[in-house]
Amino acid sequence: MEKENLFNEPKLLKNWAIKLANELGGQKVDKTPVLTPMRMDKVKKLIDQFVIDHNTNMVRVMNEEEE
């Protein structure tokens, strides 16, 4: 059985983000019953930023390993 992709539905991505935030330490992030609207334009910008920064970081790490 194939592992479900985080991008298949907003709830999966949100749960992943909460887990990540809590693993980074500091202030704990909790789910609340307060509902907000989805803003796909902002979501796309944040995901794009994550991908670009992750790729840049991976290139840096790979270059450091080669030295």
Description:
With 67 residues, this protein is mainly alpha-helical. The chain has one domain. It has two helices and no strands. It has helices spanning 10-23, 40-66. The mean pLDDT is 92.
What is the averaged pLDDT score? Answer: 92
The secondary structure category is mainly alpha
The string of secondary-structure elements, in order, is HH
Biggest sheet layout: none
What is the beta-strand fraction?
under 5%
Number of domains: 1
Terminal CA distance: 40 Å
> Helix count, per DSSP?
2
What would you say about this model in short?
This protein is an all-alpha fold and 67 residues long.
Question: Which tags fit this structure?
Answer:
single chain; mainly alpha; 2 helices; about 0% strand
What does the secondary structure layout of this molecule look like, with pairings?
Layout: H1 10-23, H2 40-66
